[in-house]
Structure formats: structure tokens, C-alpha cells
Specification:
Blueprint lengths: L7 H7 L4 E2 L37 H4 L10 E5 L6 E3 L14 E4 L10 E4 L2 E6 L19 E6 L8 E8 L5 E10 L35 H13 L10 H13 L1 H4 L7 E3 L2 E5 L4 E5 L3 E5 L4 H8 L2 H4 L16 E4 L5 E5 L3 E5 L4 H8 L23 E4 L4 E6 L3 E6 L3 H8 L23 E4 L5 E5 L3 E5 L4 H8 L15 E3 L3 E6 L2 E6 L3 E6 L2 H4 L15 E7 L6 E10 L2 E11 L23 E10 L9 E3 L4 E3 L10 E3 L8 E2 H7 L4 E5 L18 E3 L9 E2 L2 H10 L5 E6 H4 L2
Parallel strand pairs: 1-2, 2-9, 27-38, 30-31, 36-37
Antiparallel strand pairs: 3-7, 4-8, 5-6, 6-7, 8-9, 10-11, 11-12, 12-13, 14-15, 15-16, 17-18, 18-19, 20-21, 21-22, 23-24, 24-25, 25-26, 27-28, 28-29, 30-35, 30-38, 32-33, 32-34, 35-36
Pfam families: LGFP (PF08310), YkuD (PF03734)
Protein name: L,D-transpeptidase family protein
InterPro entries: LD_TPept_cat_dom (IPR005490), LGFP (IPR013207)
Length: 726
């Protein structure tokens, strides 16, 4: 192995190794420009024998360096984590982007771009490598690098791998990479924990001021402190290759740096050269690059702790990006992105949120530039970062990084439930659109999803509940029920329901799950087709004859759920033997056998036993009567030992079966109306299904079923179909 004499001190200090930890942001990756943004080739430092350039022509004047790659060493952090190895970083190449990097396979006649060794899989990654072939989370490098994926069973000792460097003329030189296992780092690859989280996002993340800052007192103080602390003779001991690299970097940025304000000097394992407007920094792994501390990117770097906080720059500033933006990447795994609209923000490109942003094409994609730094310390150890197009990326250990459109209908709905702190938790998947009817959905970690369509808005569904599973069995939004039109509504621990576009799904602990479609006669109560009023009663029972003069009828029990009526059950029925009177015409004396037509409340019941009703119940006895004679007792209950026609002997009819169970229909009586003498009396829902003297008759068990669910204020709408519905 050969090592340049000028490189011996740095190489010994690093033990020839760059530890490629798998912890978030740890990387030995080369500078990574944003996709699609062209960067100038890195200027090459002149050789030790060349005259030192002092102006912006230095790079152009430098002579081509011969191919003389230096042996490298790298330590891995364990299996399963692909890391970059920049073997060309310090080989003194004039333009490292123009050379070809190859792996030497001793068993093959030709060198290769990929080689499997005992230490793991090595691949050559170039600026032209297709995005789909890049390791996950990588940006295209500025010059060829090696991607190392350690083997599961890598040996404990070092493994040497040969590599070749070939220039455009075909000239070639070879060197050796020594791979040595090291103690593994944090395998999570997830965002590092930051400081105490700020307040939750508003519906739309707020963009920063658009004005581009031109000066920062903090940055100026930093530059001044460098000048004040400088040792005038400090650069006398600067290694020649470091001096050359620093001077070349300063020459590249000569229009912005200003005059040197201090001598070159060592700092934190590297070197810095302060200038009036910034600082040129050099590190073993990344070469020399300028940080413009009087501009937004440099000011953000200073605020982030400079070298101690963000590390050394790994590339020059890259500008000319979409929207007039710029970026610069630093050795501790973070980059600063700036645009006129958003200001300078930190992105952890190697963390889960940064990788997610990259999969959506960075600033060129639907998320745009970041509008805030990454915020961690949230519920469940989560993090988030907001971007300029109204979207944010949320991450938690349980869910990974997911995209939320906070200004969209689904994101706003999530916000009304307190974001990740609320009932829905973190997003468990990205928003999915292009569904039936132009709809979208997004799932969340606490077993709930939000579905949206243009016709129904954003609604919460509990897919793992009995109601949600029933909806799924009917085809979700593509099925007969369609999209939800209301949120999932629990009713204590024993019942729940949810409304959908074409029906309602209900669940009850005792009766299970049922689907009630919006159709039939009950739907007429919802859509305005009913002539008779419902008074928003909890239950409306329709008794419908198909024509006048007919006593056969259909009894339909409609229950109101979530503001809509749906059918619960139906059966056949009988009404007065002469059929219905016309709307508004009194039924008259029971001897004429007519039923009244209209909408009437029910408030009390009677019979020989109570089946379990919430209606006030009156047990009948031998003295029970109902007034049919004109006078103060007309159309009222009373008791008497005697009997005079046309009063009704209720006990007699109880023995014959009619009044074993009954419900009073409030026709021609309070609370619906005052009693009008002679307009009709004793209109009941009762047992013994056969034509009546004006009442509604069902089988006894059907009357019992009705009574068990009836409540005071429920209504019965009765009449001929043609006059009941528009």
C-alpha cells in the first residue's frame, strides 16, 4: 500500500478509515447535487511544483495531474446498510467526474462495475446512474463512487479489493481499498430527535418571508471572530495539498469571498481559511468548499453550529434550481435548501423524512421546498417537516414517513381531530386518489381512515369495526352503499352507525350489524316526497293502502338514524273495512267503518300484558271503556261498571283478541288537535289482523314488536299511496 507523504498525518489520525455508521445522517457519501441541477466540475488543486494561482484563473491554469490513485481504507458498520465510499476524493485528479472507476475481479478477464467480495457487495455509482438503480435515499454523485453493502457473514479481518481509475485517453492506474468491519451504529436510519416540538401546524403551513437576507449580524460576528483569533503565521505549516485545495476553492468563488481575513488554520480535524464574506473549509473526506456566511445558506450553517453542528461542506453551493433556489450539503448528513419564497431550511436527506421527500423528486416535485426545519419530539417519538406546496411529511417509529396534504380536505379533517395527538394518530399510508367518482382516502394508525369524494366530502371510517367491515363486504366506496356521507358514530359501547350515500350501516351488541338502504317508502320521508309531516319523529310507521275502498294495507316501520329514515321492518295490515276517507275528511262514527288519513302521534298504549314498551302503558280491566257518546268523555278512556253504546267496552274486545295489545293513535284528540265531537273516536293500532271499524290491525306479535321499540312522540302516517306521496 502506498501513501503520499503529504497525506501521512491525516491518514494516521483517521487510521485509514471512515466509519460508515447506519445512524441517521451518517454517511461517507460524496457531494450530492439535486437531480437535474448541473454543477461545475470540481476544480483540481495544482501540484506542489506549480505556481500558486491567486485569482479566478487558477482552475483554468492548472495542469492535468497524472493518474496516481492512493490506497484507501474503510470500516463498515455492519450488514444491511449501503454506504458510499469516495475513493477518488483525494487522488489529485484534474476532473474526477471525467474518469471511469472500475472494480478489479481477479477471477475475471475484465474489470467490472460490480463485485461481490467476502466483505460485501461493491457497486460503482456514477453521475449518470439511473435514479431507479441508485441505492435508496441516494442522490446522483458528482463523480464516481463505490456503494458498499456489507455481507451478513463478513469476516472479522480486513478484506482488500482492487480498483482501477481510467481517464478519457485510456490511461489507467490501480489502487487498493481495504474494508474492515467496525462496531455497528444506530440501525434505524430514522430522523434524529431534535429539540422540543413547536406548535402543531395550521391548516396551511406558513411560508417564510420572501425577502432574501443579505447580511446577518451573527454571521458577521463569526467572520470577525475568525479574523481576531487568527495566527498570522499559522498557514506556514499547511500541507501543500490542503493549501492548493483551499486556494482552488477560493478561486472558484472569488467573486463572493472577499479578501482573506485570516491565515489558513486547522479546525476540528480539517482546515479553514476565513475570508471577508465567508470561509473556505477543507476536510479529508470531502475536499475544499466555500461557505458564504453573508448569504442565507451560510447564515443557516452558522446558526446550525457550523462545523461542530452540521459538519464540513461536501460541495459548493448549487444554485439555478427550480424557483431560483440554492442548496449546500454538509458532512453530518444534512443539507440546507433555500428559495426566495421559503428561506433557508435544513433537510436530513439521509433520514426517513428526507428520503421520502427525495422519492417525490425533492424540490421539483409536488412538495416543493421545505418551509420549516424538521421538528421532532412529537407524540410517540415522531417527527414532521412542512413543505411549500401545502404538504408535510410525518414520521413515527410505528408508521414510517408518510405524506399528508394538510391544506386538502383530508388533511384539514385530520387537523380537526388534533393531528397525530388525536383519535386518528399518525398517517399510516400516503393519500391515495383516483378512486371511484374521483375520490381519495388516507389511512391512519389508530384504525381509522378518511375517505373523500367531491359529492360527500371528507369522512372518517373505522374499517376494522363491525360497521366498517360490513361496508367492506358490500364493496366499500365501489359497492351499493357508496362513499360515507357522515363520520362513524359510536353510541356508547353497545351500538354504532354510519351513513353512506345510499344507505346506513348500524351495529348493535344484541342484534349485530345491519344494512339499511335508502329506498322504498321510507326514503320518501327523506327526499321531500311525503305529503304528511314527520315532525322529525324518531320512528314513523307508514300504513299504505293502494286505493280507496280497500281495507288491505302495507305497514312499513321507518326508524330515523343520523337524520335519515330507513326501513326497519314491514308487514301486511288491515284498516277500516270501508277503507280510507279522503285527506282532511273526518272518519266519523265507527259504525261507518272508515279510517282517517293523515299523520298522527302515539303517546300511550294498553292491553292485558306489557311486552316491554317505553310508551305509557295502561292495563285493561273489566271496567275499561272508551267514550263514543258525545260529551265530555268523547274519544277518551274512562272506567264504568255499566256499558252504553256507542262507547267501546275495551275489556270485551280484549277477550276477543283485538285489544290484547294496543296503541292509541292521536286522531281527533290531544296532543295533535282538540277533540271535535262527532269527527271520530277510538282509532288504535291493535291486534287481530282483519278489517276493522277504522283502526289499524296487525298480528299480536307484530303489535308487540312495534310497542317494544316505540317512544312517545313517534308517528303513524296512514292513507292511500297516491295521496301520501308526491
Amino acid at each position: 500500500m502506498k501513501i503520499s507523504a503529504l497525506r501521512i498525518p491525516a491518514a494516521l489520525a483517521a487510521c485509514f478509515a471512515v466509519v460508515l455508521a447506519g445512524a441517521p445522517g451518517a454517511s461517507a457519501a460524496p457531494p450530492s447535487p439535486a437531480p437535474g441541477v448541473a454543477t461545475a466540475p470540481a476544480a483540481t488543486a495544482p501540484s506542489a511544483t506549480d505556481p500558486v494561482a491567486t485569482d479566478g484563473t487558477a482552475a483554468a491554469a492548472a495542469t492535468a495531474a497524472p493518474l496516481d490513485p492512493v490506497d484507501d481504507a474503510v470500516a463498515t458498520a455492519g450488514p444491511g446498510r449501503t454506504a458510499a465510499v469516495d475513493v477518488l476524493a483525494n487522488d489529485g485528479l484534474q476532473d474526477s467526474a471525467q474518469v471511469r472507476l472500475l472494480l478489479v475481479d481477479p477471477s475475471a478477464p475484465r474489470d467490472a462495475d460490480e463485485l461481490r467480495t467476502a466483505a460485501g457487495l461493491l457497486r460503482v455509482i456514477t453521475p449518470g446512474t439511473a435514479p431507479a438503480e441508485l441505492p435508496e435515499g441516494w442522490l446522483p454523485p458528482e463523480h464516481p463512487v463505490l456503494a458498499l453493502t456489507p455481507a451478513e457473514d463478513a469476516p472479522a479481518g480486513a478484506v482488500e479489493v482492487g480498483y482501477a481509475v481510467r481517464d478519457a485517453t485510456g490511461a489507467e492506474a490501480r489502487a487498493v481499498l481495504t474494508v474492515t468491519p467496525e462496531a455497528p451504529g444506530d440501525p434505524s436510519g430514522e430522523p434524529e430527535t431534535a429539540t422540543v416540538p413547536t406548535a402543531e401546524p395550521a391548516t396551511s403551513p406558513t411560508a417564510e418571508p420572501s425577502a432574501v437576507p443579505t447580511a446577518d449580524p451573527g454571521a458577521e460576528a463569526s467572520a470577525g471572530s475568525r479574523a481576531a483569533a487568527a495566527d498570522p503565521g499559522a498557514d506556514a505549516a499547511v500541507p501543500a495539498e490542503v493549501r492548493q485545495a483551499l486556494e482552488a476553492a477560493a478561486a472558484r468563488e472569488a467573486a463572493r469571498t472577499g479578501e482573506p481575513s485570516a491565515a489558513m488554520r486547522p479546525v476540528a480535524g480539517g482546515w479553514e481559511w476565513p475570508h471577508a464574506n465567508g470561509v473556505v473549509l477543507w476536510s479529508e473526506g470531502h475536499g475544499a468548499h466555500y461557505v458564504h456566511v453573508r448569504a442565507p445558506l451560510g447564515q443557516k450553517w452558522v446558526a446550525g453550529g457550523e462545523v461542530a453542528g452540521l459538519g464540513y461542506p461536501v460541495n459548493d453551493e448549487v444554485c439555478g434550481m427550480v424557483g431560483g433556489g440554492c442548496r449546500q450539503t454538509y458532512s453530518k448528513g444534512r443539507s440546507i435548501y433555500w428559495s426566495p419564497a421559503t428561506g433557508a431550511k435544513l433537510v436530513h436527506l439521509k433520514g426517513a423524512i428526507g428520503q421520502k421527500w427525495g422519492r417525490y423528486s425533492w424540490e421539483r416535485g409536488i412538495l416543493g421546498y421545505p418551509v420549516g426545519d424538521q421538528i421532532c419530539g412529537m407524540a410517540g417519538g415522531g417527527c414532521r417537516q412542512a413543505f411549500s406546496n401545502g404538504r408535510s411529511i410525518y414520521w413515527s417509529p410505528a408508521t414510517g414517513a408518510k405524506l399528508v396534504h394538510l391544506t386538502g380536505a383530508i388533511g384539514q379533517k385530520w387537523g380537526r381531530y388534533s393531528w397525530e395527538r388525536g383519535a386518528l394518530g399518525y398517517p399510516a399510508g400516503d393519500q391515495i386518489c383516483g378512486m371511484a367518482g374521483g375520490g381519495c382516502r388516507q389511512t391512519f394508525s389508530n384504525g381509522r381512515s378518511i375517505y373523500w369524494s367531491p359529492a360527500t366530502g371528507a369522512r372518517i371510517v373505522r374499517l376494522q369495526s363491525d360497521v366498517g367491515r360490513k361496508w367492506g363486504w358490500h364493496g366499500w366506496e365501489r359497492g351499493a352503499l357508496g362513499y360515507p356521507t357522515g363520520d362513524y358514530v359510536p353510541q356508547g359501547r353497545t351500538a354504532a352507525y354510519q351513513k353512506f350515500r345510499h344507505g346506513i350501516v348500524t351495529w348493535n351488541a344484541s342484534s349485530g350489524t345491519r344494512v339499511h338502504m335508502f329506498r322504498g317508502e321510507c326514503q320518501n320521508l327523506n327526499n321531500g316526497r311525503s305529503v304528511q309531516p314527520t315532525r322529525n319523529a324518531g320512528r314513523v310507521s307508514l300504513t299504505i293502502a293502494e286505493g280507496y275502498g280497500r281495507s288491505e294495507a302495507t305497514f312499513v316501520n321507518c326508524v330515523r338514524i343520523g337524520g335519515s329514515y330507513v326501513e326497519e321492518w314491514r308487514t301486511s295490515a288491515y284498516v277500516g273495512a270501508s277503507g280510507f276517507k279522503r285527506p282532511g275528511v273526518p272518519s266519523g262514527h265507527t259504525q261507518y267503518l272508515y279510517s282517517p288519513q293523515g299523520s298522527y302521534s302515539v303517546t300511550e298504549s294498553f292491553g292485558v300484558y306489557n311486552p316491554g314498551t317505553a310508551l305509557p302503558y295502561r292495563p285493561l280491566n273489566p271496567n275499561s271503556r272508551w267514550g263514543g257518546r258525545l260529551g265530555t268523555l268523547y274519544n277518551k278512556y274512562f272506567e264504568s261498571t255499566g256499558y252504553t253504546w256507542p262507547d267501546e267496552n275495551m275489556w270485551y274486545f280484549a277477550q276477543s283478541g283485538d285489544y290484547r295489545l294496543g296503541v292509541v293513535i292521536n286522531y281527533n284528540r290531544p296532543p295533535d288537535s282538540p277533540i271535535v265531537q262527532g269527527n271520530g273516536f277510538a282509532i288504535f293500532l291493535h291486534a287481530n289482523k282483519k278489517p276493522t271499524a277504522g283502526c289499524i290491525a296487525l298480528h299480536e306479535h307484530e303489535v308487540a314488536r312495534y310497542m317494544r321499540t316505540a317512544r312517545p312522540g313517534d308517528r303513524i302516517i296512514m292513507g292511500v299511496r297516491a295521496d301520501l306521496f308526491r
